[in-house]
Amino acid sequence: MTTFASPVDLEAYGEYKIPDTPGPLYRFTGRITADTAEQGRYHLYGGWFCPWSHRVAIVRSLAGLDGVVTMSFVGDERDARGWAFREQYGPDPVNGFTLLRQAYEASTPGFDGHVSVPALWDRVAGRILTNDSHAMGIDLATQFHHLATPLIATYPAALAEDIEQLDRWLGPAVTYGVGKAAGPGPARDTLLATFQQLDDRLAERRYLLGDQVTEADIRLWVRLVRYDAGPNAHRTINPGLAAYPNLWAYARDLYAIPAFRDTTDFNSFTAPDAQVPDWSEPAGRH
Ligand SMILES: N[C@@H](CCC(=O)N[C@@H](CS)C(=O)NCC(=O)O)C(=O)O
């Protein structure tokens, strides 16, 4: 049995392209409910490099689900075949697939959409339930309380509206804006103005919504931890995250939490000649 995909080969296969097909981009929209939240039922296919996967990996740990929902990682390079299982991070422990595409094809015969991570596989149904990290983050945080005690409840009902409201601001400004901020256009000014607003906000509170870590912090943090390693590796956007002392200390404060630190693989997202700041410097925030 073949366990791993052959090496990335752009000459033979060409570049991965996002298919130009009509309809929703991410077609798997299933949800986990308390009655389908079962021990060992779900498997998370993720990528270390991927900020969306990273969000869900952090939630999984904070929800106490490391032993309830299994997780594995695709390699961080691809050709037209899409994400694949390679020696770098190990095989597919659920289906023995060599290409993530096989999981999508097993779910929808003739699948021609995005082969994306994160993807949540349902072992009972034998198919992908969802490839929407937003739904995964919420469901892992809220539907498993009969099976596991969360270390931190990241999506409390009382804060759900505040979390989504922050997302309507930080989504365009940071999540989607950071990749455009090195280029021409207004994205850079918007990003840096947002960093300044966050820095002011974090002078007064430990986390975005007060004294408790929530999904809002997780969504922002996966972008902050990549900022000086990827989008701002050559300091083309600004001199670095450290230009915003409260924001930078907040980001290090989160990095000190094992669920954040242990799900972070700097090698998977750091540009070869990037100057990465010292994330382990004590944050001194209480
Ligand atoms: N909306 C998706 C985005 C996931 C996403 O963009 N994943 C990237 C890797 S970080 C990917 O696999 N892209 C391949 C594709 O979209 O075709 C989510 O929130 O889960």
Automatic annotation (TrEMBL):
PROSITE patterns: GST_CTER (PS50405). Signal peptide: none annotated. Residues 145-276 form the GST C-terminal domain. InterPro entries: Glutathione-S-Trfase_C-like, Glutathione-S-Trfase_C_sf, Glutathione_S-Trfase_N, GST_Omega/GSH, Thioredoxin-like_sf. Pfam families: GST_C_2, GST_N_2. It comes from the Bacteria. SUPFAM superfamilies: GST C-terminal domain-like, Thioredoxin-like. This is GST C-terminal domain-containing protein. It comes from Winogradskya humida.
